[in-house]
Every structure is written in C-alpha cells, then in structure tokens.
Amino acid sequence: MTKKLKVLELFAGVGGFRVGLENADSNVFETKWANQWEPSRKTQDAFEVYDYHFPNSININENIEEIPNEVFEKMDADIIVGGFPCQDYSVARSKKHEMGLEGKKGVLFWEIIRATNHIRPKYLILENVDRLLKSPSKQRGRDFAIMLASFNELGYSVEWRVINAAEYGRSQRRRRVFFFVYRNDTDFAHNIDNKFESNEPNILFDEHLYDDYIFNKGLFARQFPVQKKPYKNRQASHELSDDIVEVSDNFTGTVWNTGIMRHGRYFTIDTEPTGDEKPITLGEIIQAENEIDDKYFLTDLSRIKKFEYLRGPKKIERTSIEGHTYTFSEGSMSPFDDLSMPGRTMLTSEGSINRSTHLLKINGRYRLITPIEAERLQDFPDDWTKYKKISTGEVVDVSDRMRMFFMGNALVTEIVRRIGEELIQINLGHN
C-alpha cells in the first residue's frame, strides 16, 4: 500500500491545493495542518469556509508570522503547499551582518522558508503569478533568483513551469507559475545525479543533458508536455551566488517559463505546450438559464453602458504623483465574453462592474457569471463556497461578493490534481 504523504497547506484560502491533492488520491495525501489568515479583516471568511469543509485537520487561523518555530518543528509534514503573495523579495544585511528584509510589510515567502527550515519536508508545491519571473521591472528575474538561492541554501532543488490551465484542458486562461521543490537527499534527486554518472553536481547543465529532464523526466514534463525544442531558441543558464544578498543586489540573469535549479545553478528555456489538449469552453461551464437568479442579469441600461465604456478603447490624460502628465491608453476588448472560448483569468474583483469581470450575452440578455460558474472555472465542486462555519459553530451563508473574491484568489484545482498524481509516482520511485 502506498504510504501516506502528510501535508501542510499554507495560505490555504478555501482549500484549493487540498481539493486538488485529494482528487489525485485522498488515500495518499493527508492534509493534517492548514494556515489561513486574511490581514486587516474582522471576519475570516476563507478560513471559516475551509474549516466548514475540513473540520478534522489542525486549522490555524493566525498570522503566519506569529506562528512559533516550535509549532512548525512539531509538524512531521512530508509536503508543504501554498500559493503565496507576490511581494518585494529583496534582502539586505542588518547592522549585525545578518540577513534582513526590505519592504513596507513582512514578505511572506520568508515564512515558507522558515517553515521549510524547521520541518524539512521532502517536497514543496508552490504557486504564484507568472509575472514573478520578470519582477521587479528594474532588475528582471531578481525576485525569483532570490527564491532559488534561498532553497539552494537549505539543500533543495527547484523545478518550475508557467502553466496556462486552458492549454491543458481546463476552462480558464489562467497563467500561473508552479514550483516543484524537492530535498537534495531524496531518491528522486539522487536518481537524477546517478543517471549522469558523474560526481560533478552541475553536470546536468553540460552540453544538452538537461534536455531529458526538461522535456521528459521532470514532474511538469510528464504531466504537462511541451514541444521538444525551446521557443525561438530562448534558453539561458546562471550560477547563483552562495550569498543571497549578492543575488539580491547584483542579479542580471534571465528566467524563462520553464526551468530547473540544482546545486546553485539553473537552466531555463521558453517552452510551448504541445497543443494536444482541448480546453473546456465558457459555454460548457455556464448554468442553464432557468437556474439563474434574476439578480445576475443586467437590466439597468446604465450598467450595460458602463461595461461598454470599460471594455472599449480609451486614452485618458493623467498626472503622476510627481506631477508628470501622461496619456493612459487602453485597447478595446470584446463587448462580451465569447462562449466558444475558455474563460479569462478571474480576479478578486469578479462580479463587480469593471473591465476584468466576465460579461455574458445569452439570448439577447446580458448577465454576470454566478458563484457556481466561478467555482467551475477553478474546478471546485458546485457551491463549495456557499457556507461557512463561524466561531460559535453555526453554519451561515457566504455573500456572493466574498464567494467571487475567494475564486479570484484561488487556483485551478485540476492542475494541482495532475501535479499530485505525478508526485505519487515520483515518491514511489517511478522515475
């Protein structure tokens, strides 16, 4: 029988990673701990939805920065998962020549590093927005390089891939970067080195020996196949300094949408999907018209006109904080969403009157998507976010606005399911 893999879910939201992993195999993935905390909110709605669905795990509703090291040390998690906020990851030395953080608020990635250092899991699966690979704009790739250097310092390797869910059979054109992080003393890591029959840790990057991993043997290559050559021959490699502050101050490398970092050196290429998987269309996920409450239809002509303006082209004179005048330009988009296409990327503002909101026109009537349709775009079960359990133990309804907010923050759970299925094979030694 396959051994269970104990999971700690950080930045848990309403449980997207857990849903995906349990859909892969609930007999293997056992989420024992979860942390969810929404700063600056009196009500902890996402946590309450999570706790409603998963009351039997240890669900921690605290600021992760305030969780003591001793709590992490008691967790024997095999895997840490989480979709963490995109922030400023730059580092600098403190007056005591220790690593300190710059930025206006705590950078929560370092809490993942802290948890990893105290738990020492075999694997991590992480998710972030794809612009992370090019941030900040004045030193592209620096933030991601800091992350790679941080995991390298702890003795981990990192494989990454930007995945557009619609290109792998799902219903949303959502692009996110996923990390597969694994400890360098795992069998999987040893097998990589052994295949190259060398004691040189960087042999993976000599000549074209990396090709087999990038295109065939890596976790993402197995579940999310790509064309067998770099797009426009875009490829690069970089040796990371052992000094993370040096990486922060002076990184000048390139990071493409696919790559692998082992022993402080990474190789990265720009890949394209094979195009073998047909996406689910928006038309296939929408509810039947007789199931739609009237409140989702736009009957006020002024609201329809507002959408026309927001989705249309515009040039607006603006003044910057410094007093500089400039022209903000925005191109036009379709007046309503195409039902023969997969949905666009949902944001936390979904359902409000703004340019990013999905707008449907069916049988001559305009309407917004429903919370159930938003859940389907992220591959959650229908009405997953309908109820929450508050501190008194009472089960209450969740507002439509919060349900949309949850889904804008969530991930496509079927992508996680596929990652989970491949991780089971890797953990069983099926390299």
The CATH homologous superfamily of the largest domain is called Vaccinia Virus protein VP39
Overall average pLDDT:
91
Work out the strand percent.
15-25%
* Low-confidence spans: 95-105, 201-205
Radius of gyration: 23 Å
Can you describe what's shown?
Helix 12 packs parallel to helix 13. The strands form 5 sheets. A 10-stranded mixed sheet has the order 3-2-1-4-7-9-8-11-12-10, sandwiched between helices. A two-stranded antiparallel ribbon has the order 5-6. A two-stranded antiparallel sheet has the order 13-14. Helices cover 29% and strands 22% of the residues. The protein folds into 2 domains: 5-277 and 412-427, Vaccinia Virus protein VP39 (Rossmann fold); 282-378, no CATH class. It is an alpha+beta fold and 431 residues long. Helix 2 links the parallel strand 2 (29-35) and strand 3. The chain is globular and about 65 Å long.
How does the SSE layout of this entry go?
Elements: E1 5-10, H1 16-25, E2 29-35, H2 45-53, E3 58-60, H3 69-73, E4 79-83, E5 91-93, E6 99-101, H4 109-119, E7 123-129, H5 142-153, E8 156-164, E9 175-183, H6 187-195, H7 210-217, H8 219-223, E10 235-239, H9 244-250, E11 258-262, E12 265-269, H10 282-285, H11 301-311, E13 314-319, E14 325-330, E15 359-362, E16 365-368, H12 371-377, E17 387-389, E18 395-397, H13 400-409, H14 413-427
Parallel strand pairs: 1-2, 1-4, 2-3, 4-7
Antiparallel strand pairs: 5-6, 7-9, 8-9, 8-11, 10-12, 11-12, 13-14, 15-16, 17-18
